[in-house]
Design a protein that fits this description.
Length: 268
């Protein structure tokens, strides 16, 4: 990746992470570690990979994104706000009764294409294929947690994916271990599997640019999330809400480059 472009993405990701901290703070919510690690992959999607049109968000030729990792909604909201889907002021009402941005992504939110469910991504991919055939080039990206892949219903829906629209689907698997069990299982059922370091924009770019096998098949990118295991951010263990000191500490650490993601230190 061009160094200037990578630097631009790292700056955007930093601001998104800071917004996530602020959102969780004003909402008296925890779970920061579950959210921060997917920021880089979202930034890459919305600023580099996907065809999106914030000013015309219902255009039929747009790519779609489905967040199957429901608890990571704050990261998606912060990216959508930075991308221009709605005002950043909306972020500070996150989780409040009647607010646009609720704990789990909802299709009433500008920029959200489906509720948090990977099954919705499969349905959208099939619908696009049925409606546009070979003329359309729209793709569907869905981010899920690797733990969810162990659920019977989730796994069955993925491995039994019908051929119609399959080549349009990219499944992003948020993983703390990059389990070979998940990769080999998907490959057995015809998926094209590649891997990426979720805290390294060069690695993410290489994964998205990896050549396919020349056949119509869905692709899975197993994204290593080192931030989920980070122990140097100074937060309490578990999902306890952040105190003011936690927030100040997090912002300072993020700005200094000590964070679980891309940037000077990245997740390396």
């Amino acid at each position: 990746m061009d160094p200037a472009r990578r630097g631009e993405f790292e700056k955007i990701a930093l601001e998104v992470r800071k917004d996530v901290v602020r959102m969780l703070s004003v909402a008296h919510s925890g779970g920061f570690k579950k959210v921060i690690g997917i920021v880089d992959i979202l930034v890459y999607l919305y600023w580099e990979c996907m065809n999106v049109f914030p000013a015309e968000r219902n255009r039929q030729d747009r790519d779609r994104f489905v967040l199957g990792k429901g608890v990571a909604a704050p990261a998606l909201y912060a990216c959508l706000a930075r991308r221009g889907y709605f005002s950043r002021e909306e972020l500070w009402s996150y989780g409040r009764l009647g607010a646009t941005l609720q704990g789990f992504a909802d299709i009433r939110t500008p920029g959200v294409d489906a509720p948090w469910c990977h099954g919705g991504a499969i349905g959208i991919a099939r619908g696009i294929a049925s409606s546009f055939g070979d003329e359309g080039r729209q793709r569907v990206f869905c981010l899920v947690d690797e733990d969810d892949m162990t659920c019977g219903a989730a796994w069955e829906s993925v491995v039994s994916l019908p051929s119609e629209g399959a080549e349009r689907l990219v499944l992003l698997i948020d993983s703390t271990t990059q389990s070979e069990k998940t990769a080999s299982g998907l490959e057995i059922f015809g998926w094209d599997v590649v891997r990426a370091d979720g805290g390294d924009f060069d690695s993410i770019s290489e994964a998205f640019g990896a050549p396919d096998r020349g056949v119509a098949c869905p692709r899975a990118i197993i994204v290593l999330n080192k931030a989920a295991n980070m122990t140097d951010m100074g937060f309490q263990e578990g999902d306890a809400p952040m105190s003011k000191d936690d927030v100040d500490n997090a912002i300072n650490l993020l700005e200094s480059g000590t964070r679980g993601g891309g940037g000077p230190d990245g997740g390396k």
